[in-house]
Amino acid sequence: MDLNFKAGDTIKVYYKIKEGEQTRTQAFEGVVLAVKGQAGDKTFTVRHIGADNVGVERIFPLSSPNLEKVELLRQGRVRRAKVYFVRNLSPKEVRKKLS
């Protein structure tokens, strides 16, 4: 899987989830907070504002076989490698900072 996104970008991650005997694909859309790791061991953290304005963060390993695809929805213009500061902002402020 190629790394065609960076911190501040809005992406949609399609991840395979196994429930008993069946597998399904779950989409998780959000802002990339960080990309960490070395060549074969990279992970990326995605933050999504869920129901009731609760922030949900997930860490995805880039080399996982359960990772189906990653779509780049919008590129963010930030001057940081890690954008952890968006944790303290409202969704409207986040959109303003990342545009």
Written description of the protein model:
The model has no long low-confidence stretch (mean pLDDT 92). The chain has one helix at 91-98; strands at 10-19, 22-36, 43-49, 55-61, 67-74. The protein has 99 residues and is mainly beta. Strands 4-3-2-1-5 form a five-stranded antiparallel sheet, with no helix packed on it. It has a single domain (10-93), classed as SH3 type barrels (Roll). It is globular, with a radius of gyration of 14 Å. A hairpin with a 6-residue loop joins β2 and β3 (43-49). The longest helix is centred in the C-terminal third of the chain and has 8 residues, at 91-98.
Q: Span from first to last CA?
A: 26 Å
Radius of gyration from the alpha-carbon trace, in angstroms: 14 Å
| Residue runs with pLDDT of under 50 for 5 or more positions | none
Please tell me the overall pLDDT: 92
**What is the CATH class?**
Mainly Beta
CATH topology: SH3 type barrels
Helical content stands at under 10%
Neighbour order of strands in the largest sheet: 4-3-2-1-5
Short structural description:
Helices cover 8% and strands 47% of the residues.
Q: What is the strand and helix layout of this fold?
A:
Blueprint: E1 10-19, E2 22-36, E3 43-49, E4 55-61, E5 67-74, H1 91-98
Antiparallel strand pairs: 1-2, 1-5, 2-3, 3-4
